[in-house]
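Slide 14.
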Amino acid sequence: MDSKENNYVLYDGDCGFCNRSVAFILKHESSSAIHFAPIQSTYTKELFKKNNWEEPNLSTFYFIQDGKKLERSAAAFEVLKYLKSPVRWLRIFRFIPRKITDWIYDQVAKRRQRISKGFCVMPTPDQRTRFVLV
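Slide 15: predicted structure.
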């Protein structure tokens, strides 16, 4: 799959909070425009290597849009564009300085393992085609 043709959410596949985030996106998406890959996947490692990006961090939420890497709060705000209203209205907070929204993101990321444990996203058969698991 060519990353320049698709939008990818890269998430920690072993994290319950991250899996819940993916399930939330699937539940509230307005279209099937987003694909998903665990950060631990070969796909993600090859994507980062091919683009000469620093090694991916498991506590970082990434969104690859048209070959461009967004991370942390910037990635989250961009993903909101693909969700239905009223959830997408949360994008209004993107006008808060990135330093502040990334600090909030970092506080949640530090505690993500404690916030939600033991959840595995269960996509429908149609949704499963958008997951890269290798």
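Speaker note: The longest helix spans residues 98-115.
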